[in-house]
Design goal:
2 helices, DNA-bd_pseudobarrel_sf, At1g16640 B3 domain
């Protein structure tokens, strides 16, 4: 989940949209971002990102919005 304050502060709150999530190697995945109550959720493409980056339960992804581009740092 993504806190709604983050979405609001970066003007990405509102309708469902597709964003690009990029890992540290620069590879990108389209992921659907939607609002769920007071949080944002990632779906439709997120499972591909998880699989391709060998993420497991307990791993941490740090998201940062840079120049309106979503970047992801994966910590294992």
């Amino acid at each position: 989940n993504i806190p709604v304050d983050f979405l609001r502060d970066h003007h990405i709150l509102g309708e469902t949209r597709t964003i690009k999530v990029q890992n540290v190697e620069g590879r990108e995945w389209p992921v659907r971002l939607l609002r769920r109550g007071d949080r944002g959720g990632l779906e439709s493409g997120w499972s591909n990102f998880v699989y391709d980056n060998n993420l497991e339960e307990g791993d941490v992804c740090a998201f940062e919005l840079i120049n309106n581009k979503k970047k992801v740092l994966i910590l294992k």
